[in-house]
Structure formats: structure tokens, C-alpha cells
Amino acid sequence: xxxxxxxxxxxxxxxxxxxxxxxxxxxxxxxxxxxxxxxxxxxxxxxxxxxxxxxxxxxxxxxxxxxxxxxxxxxxxxxxxxxxxxxxxxxxxxxxxxxxxxxxxxxxxxxxxxxxxxxxxxxxxxxxxxxxxxxxxxxxxx
Length: 142
Prior knowledge:
- The structure is a single chain.
- About 75% of the residues lie in helices and about 10% in strands.
- The chain is mostly helical and about 140 residues long.
- It folds into 2 domains: about 5-50; about 60-140, no CATH class.
- The chain has a two-stranded antiparallel sheet.
- A hairpin with a 2-residue loop joins strand 1 and strand 2 (about 100-105).
- The chain starts with a helix and ends with a helix.
- The mean pLDDT is about 85.
């Protein structure tokens, strides 16, 4: 069975992306070694996107510093969200007890306002931190 140029052209995207099996790579390379015109066209087409690629203008150490800063900000955002949820839930928690024959349900925020005031302050603080970090991460994206 003879492999045609059209078959090789169909296999080229898989070959050039590096996803071809070893047998397919061997088949394409053998065909290109015999068809110099197609091999030249493949080299030209493959090198064209690489030459048009714009290298990063930033030095690698600045890119790494920016990546680390972004990771740190996202970690703070995650922790502030978790703490805001925790203190909000604590502030809105219930106390359930039995009073003889009846079940008594109390909202801790209403029954113990002095104890819940620090939870409210912390919840508001962590929500403010979270919203601030969220806005900062959105504006830096684009």
C-alpha cells in the first residue's frame, strides 16, 4: 500500500503537535525525506508562527515576583473569605435547648449581643478585606 501526499498532509497537524504515535512519526518523517518540496513547505509553515511570536518584554525575575505576589493575594483572599463566613455563621448561630416540655430556640446575636459584637466586627472586617482583594484581583486581570 502506497501512502499518498494527501494522507501525510492529513497527519501533519498531529505530527507537528507532538501527539503522533511513534509509527506515525516514522511514516511522516520517511515520506518527508523523500518529498523535499513538502518538507520545505512544512518547515516554512512551522517556522512562520514561531517567528511571529512576541517574546515577553518583562524580565523573568519580574514575572516571577508578580506571580508570587498574585499567589499571595489569592491566598489572603481565600483566608479572608473563610474567616468572614466563619464569623458570620457564628454570629447567626442558634442555641437550642429544652425547657421542660418545649424546645427553646434562641438566636445568639439577639440573646447575647455583648458576646456577639466582636463576631460582628470581625465578620465585617473580613468581608471588607475580601471585597477589597477581590476588586484588586479583578482590576489587575484586564
